[in-house]
């Protein structure tokens, strides 16, 4: 102020001018303020009016997430309500690889909290290689409550690792049903493509598993159910805040089988430590009562992805536990083929039942000696006796008289050489030899000499135990044939509605009753006074049967087959077909015990135990085959 | 007794500008409404902010009662102390979140750049006032240097937001002090030409901010996330808004820093274009009143100081709303009087206290 008073006149004028200039500049800045605020308002107008729809959509998309809700898979029961496949709830520890950072470190650190075995690690690595989607993969399954609690405490240390409550598939009967029930497994890329092609992929959003083998595979559509939808509001972290709407999933249907779990188990155990297969069918409707392939495997190993070590053990085993011998294994039927050959003879009128054939113990054809293995020749043999004592010469001559193509034509009626159409996948067709077949497959013409051994179920003959059982059931049911089916009905658990799978007669072979009577009486004779009489000696019911022994390797001319000199896997297969009770059959079966010698030694005792249980409810004390 | 009460009332309200105060209180109330929603209805933040407001209004009252010539005396020591502290930060500051902004002075930690927000305009106003009689080009250059030194120190911390605001306040002040137009034009041309140079000295994160401003979708989960989500919040608000406490972007945690720098997104989502218009009107009303006070200030010192305070306040509001609505880069600038946080509230109210002091002490000066 003191400076101002030195020359007040000039200062005031200057001050006035300065003030004017200052105010002018302030007004300019005021305009600047208005301009920028106007700009802001225009921006707000643009965002909130012009583009409002766009941003509303974005905000909704932020807010709402549509989550699939996987349905409960249907469960599988045997005919008596025994559980064969079911679900149970348990916790798994899952890692989302894209969010977890370094996987090895994460797993190492997790291992300090919950037990993680080397097997878990191997399995996880395999899943990681196979997974294409950004999914979470289980590192540990079936965690205990204590492990869950421990993980919950340390959870903050593990981004991308979550404990999830999941439904697990379990097969309480384990290896006994491994080939019938099959198993589920994690959906792989190929299956994703298949689902996409068939338009079912949408229904598998939220599903991690799909049926891989057996009934789990063939009834996938019925078992899976319909995926539900949950519309949830999510926060920025993707966590569900609340449910906005929910379309509940429709659980899958249950399967009720024709299989008798107890019968299946008895049959499985009856083999002892032998390899083999057994198929038992109700001849009245084609319902499969037992379908055994031994050895089996634990299907539970496959549910969460099998670890490579267990896989190579199963896949590399010489016993081939993964092969379903009952439906995919093919064997020469041996002498079990004879009753059908006898029927063919009657069908074509080539031989009368009482016609006598002389059996000198061999049959010469084109300089080749077709042998009958037994030490004392049978002599005079009619049709009945030919089956009861199993004469080879009778059928050598019969086959020679019939010719290969008429045999093939007749056997095709019983389903030999074609898939039965059973309701699981992986069935083999087997080989029904004929001139046409040989030309097509081997590009060779048929030699008449090759027909001879076909008559006793050797040669090119090769059938599945399932085909043999189905043919036996057709015979037992007097020529009325049903398609074998494992599932009795599909049950909708909501409505209780039961959809039967079958039965409709596939065809009627219109066999003459008098022809059938000859063969069936002879088969009763087999168990009464024939090759398996000792096995059925004390049976309180009448069972019809036929033994069979199938050569695995050819025996040279002039040599004798001595079991002890042959390697175990080259020994003869033991076969048996049977049905009971003979006058009104409720069960027909075919058994093969691999490399177990004569039919009466291994296969027939197994059949006896199965029939005893089925007809009498009798439980065996020990396996039929014990060596 | 009534006499004592009347005296007390006069004592407390003598230097308070009613118009300015009512605008401030309305904005503070708006802030509390938005804050309650942003905090999901929790009163913890609300009561904290109420405490901040009490302190800020107390500081405002104190400064309204300090005559401007006392402030003038404080200008030089305050500025020098501030510069010294900034150098101290650069030498021995503490690093928090990758930036060296804090200085431990034994008793407590302080952020000297906050002090400079008031010290720089005070110093420049003092300087121009001192040389009022013979303002030459040299004086403007010296003023610019006095502005550039602290601004550069703060930019180095790095704190782009504060450096920008201090530069703006100094810039406004030099403009109001009468910087010749030819210089302004020359600087504008030179500034435009030196943009590439500026780009080359920028930190990576600053460049990233500029790049994502131009196209936020290039980094939707990284530095573009803030802008995208706040723009969605504003746009989805529409004309009338989603209603108080009903903003989905807000309540589902899509808006980051929603109680502080991004509170405008919360407000805008829930109150829409209408609410935005009301808020802009409130700010304009406050700025308008502050400009009237500036225009009528008695001395060059008080005029320049008031003008700088007013326009800095405007800059805060514009930059914040601009960044939330996606037309300005994300710099750490709060929405004045609305965002949660004590420091900015106190420094802004301190500024308005000075404005009130300037407005109510001029009669005393004249008589």
Q: Could you please describe the fold and organization of this structure?
A:
The complex is a heterodimer of chains A (627) and B (367). Chain A has 627 residues and is α+β, with helices and mostly antiparallel strands. Chain A has 3 domains: 8-50; 66-257, Penicillin-binding protein 2a (Domain 2); 261-313 and 326-616, Beta-lactamase. Chain A has 22 helices and 23 strands. In chain A, the strands form 7 sheets. In chain A, strands 2, 3, 4, 5, 10, 18 and 19 form a 7-stranded mixed sheet that branches. In chain A, a hairpin with a 6-residue loop joins strand 22 and strand 23. The N and C termini of chain A lie far apart (126 Å). Mean pLDDT of chain A is 88; it is low at 1-10. By secondary structure, chain B is mostly helical. Chain B has 2 domains: 28-65 and 216-367, no CATH class; 76-201, no CATH class. Chain B has 15 helices and 3 strands. In chain B, strands 1-2-3 form a 3-stranded antiparallel sheet, with helices on one face. In chain B, a hairpin with a 4-residue loop joins strand 2 and strand 3 (109-110). In chain B, helix 2 runs antiparallel to helix 13 and helix 14 (300-324) runs antiparallel to helix 15. The model of chain B has no long low-confidence stretch (mean pLDDT 88). The chains are: A alpha+beta (627), B mainly alpha (367).
């Amino acid at each position: 102020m003191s400076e101002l008073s030195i020359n007040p006149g000039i200062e005031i004028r200057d001050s006035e001018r300065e003030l004017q200039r200052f105010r002018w500049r302030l007004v300019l800045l005021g305009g600047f303020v208005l301009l920028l605020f106007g700009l802001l308002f225009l921006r707000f107008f643009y965002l909130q009016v012009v583009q409002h729809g766009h941003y509303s959509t974005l905000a909704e998309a932020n807010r709402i997430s549509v989550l699939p809700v996987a349905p409960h898979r249907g469960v599988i029961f045997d005919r008596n309500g025994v559980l064969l496949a079911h679900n149970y709830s348990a916790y798994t520890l899952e890692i989302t690889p894209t969010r977890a950072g370094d996987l090895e470190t994460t797993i190492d650190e997790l291992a300090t909290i919950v037990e993680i075995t080397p097997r878990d690690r191997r399995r996880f690595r395999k899943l990681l290689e196979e997974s294409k989607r950004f999914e979470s993969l289980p590192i540990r399954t079936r965690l205990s409550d204590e492990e869950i609690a421990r993980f919950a405490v340390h959870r903050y240390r593990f981004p991308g690792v979550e404990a999830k409550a999941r439904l697990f598939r379990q097969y309480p009967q384990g290896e006994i049903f491994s080939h019938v029930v099959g198993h589920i497994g994690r959906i792989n890329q190929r299956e994703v493509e298949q689902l996409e092609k068939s338009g079912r992929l949408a229904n598998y959003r939220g599903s991690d598993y799909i049926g891989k083998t057996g009934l789990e595979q063939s009834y996938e559509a019925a078992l899976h159910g319909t995926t539900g939808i949950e519309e949830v509001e999510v926060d920025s972290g993707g966590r569900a805040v609340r449910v906005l709407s929910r379309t509940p999933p429709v659980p899958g249907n249950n399967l009720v089988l024709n299989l008798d779990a107890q019968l299946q188990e008895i049959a499985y155990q009856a083999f002892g430590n032998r390899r083999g297969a057994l198929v038992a069918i109700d001849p009245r409707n084609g319902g499969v009562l037992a379908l055994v392939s031994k050895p089996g495997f634990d299907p539970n190993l496959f549910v969460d992805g099998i670890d490579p070590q267990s896989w190579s053990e199963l896949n590399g085993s010489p016993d081939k536990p993964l092969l379903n011998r009952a439906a995919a294994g093919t064997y020469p039927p041996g002498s079990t083929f004879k009753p059908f050959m006898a029927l063919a003879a009657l069908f074509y009128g080539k031989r009368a039942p009482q016609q006598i054939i002389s059996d000198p113990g061999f049959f010469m054809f084109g300089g080749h000696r077709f042998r009958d293995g037994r030490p004392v020749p049978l002599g005079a043999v009619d049709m009945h006796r030919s089956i009861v004592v199993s004469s080879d010469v009778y059928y050598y001559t019969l086959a020679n008289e019939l010719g290969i193509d008429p045999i093939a034509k007749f056997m095709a009626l019983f389903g030999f050489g074609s898939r039965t159409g059973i309701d699981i996948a992986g069935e083999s067709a087997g080989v029904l030899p004929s001139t046409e077949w040989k030309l097509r497959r081997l590009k060779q013409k048929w030699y008449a000499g090759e027909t001879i051994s076909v008559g006793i179920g050797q040669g090119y003959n090769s059938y599945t135990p399932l085909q043999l059982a189905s043919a036996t059931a057709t015979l037992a049911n007097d020529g009325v044939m049903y398609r074998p089916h494992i599932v009795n009905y599909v049950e909708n658990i909501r409505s209780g509605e039961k959809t039967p799978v079958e039965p409709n007669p596939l065809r009627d072979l219109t066999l003459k009753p008098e022809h059938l009577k000859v063969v069936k009486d002879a088969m009763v004779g087999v168990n009464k006074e024939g090759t398996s009489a000792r096995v059925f000696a004390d049976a309180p019911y009448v069972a019809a049967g036929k033994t069979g022994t199938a050569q695995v390797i050819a025996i040279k001319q002039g040599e004798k087959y001595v079991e002890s000199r042959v390697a175990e896997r080259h020994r003869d297969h033991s076969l048996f077909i049977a049905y009971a009770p003979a006058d009104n059959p409720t069960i027909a079966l075919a058994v093969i015990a691999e490399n177990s010698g004569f039919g009466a030694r291994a296969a027939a005792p197994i059949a006896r135990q199965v029939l005893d249980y089925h007809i009498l409810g009798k439980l065996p004390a020990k396996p039929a085959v014990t060596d | 007794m009534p006499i004592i009460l009347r005296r007390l009332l006069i004592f407390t309200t003598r230097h308070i500008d009613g118009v300015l105060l009512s605008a401030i209180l309305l904005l503070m109330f708006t802030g509390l409404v938005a804050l309650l929603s942003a905090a999901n209805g929790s009163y913890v933040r609300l009561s904290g902010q109420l405490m901040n407001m009490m302190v800020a209004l107390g500081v405002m009252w104190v400064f309204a009662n300090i005559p401007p010539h006392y402030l003038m005396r404080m200008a030089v020591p305050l500025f020098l102390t501030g510069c010294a502290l900034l150098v101290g930060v650069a030498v021995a500051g503490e690093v928090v979140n990758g930036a060296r902004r804090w200085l431990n002075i034994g008793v407590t930690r302080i952020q000297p750049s906050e002090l400079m927000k008031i010290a720089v305009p005070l110093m420049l106003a003092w300087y121009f006032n001192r040389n009022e009689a013979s303002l030459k080009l040299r004086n403007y250059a010296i003023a610019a240097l006095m502005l550039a030194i602290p601004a550069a120190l703060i930019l180095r911390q790095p704190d782009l937001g504060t450096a920008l605001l201090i530069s703006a306040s100094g810039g406004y002040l030099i403009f109001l002090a009468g910087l010749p137009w030819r210089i302004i034009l020359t600087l504008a041309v030179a500034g435009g030409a030196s943009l590439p140079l500026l780009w080359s000295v920028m930190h990576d994160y600053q460049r990233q901010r500029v790049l994502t401003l131009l196209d936020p979708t290039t980094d939707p989960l990284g530095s573009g996330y803030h802008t995208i989500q706040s723009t969605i919040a504003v746009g989805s608000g529409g004309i009338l808004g989603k209603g108080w406490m009903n903003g989905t972007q807000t309540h589902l945690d899509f808006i980051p820093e929603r109680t502080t720098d991004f509170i405008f997104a919360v407000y805008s989502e829930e109150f829409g274009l209408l609410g935005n218009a009301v808020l802009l009107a409130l700010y304009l009303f406050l700025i308008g009143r502050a400009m009237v006070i500036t225009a009528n200030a008695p001395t060059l010192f008080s005029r320049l100081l008031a003008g700088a305070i007013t326009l800095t306040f405007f800059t805060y509001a514009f930059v914040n709303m601009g960044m939330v609505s996606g037309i300005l880069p994300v710099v750490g600038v709060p929405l004045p009087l609305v965002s949660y946080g004590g420091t900015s509230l106190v420094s802004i109210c301190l500024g308005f206290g000075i404005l009130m002091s300037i407005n109510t002490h001029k009669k005393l000066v004249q008589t």
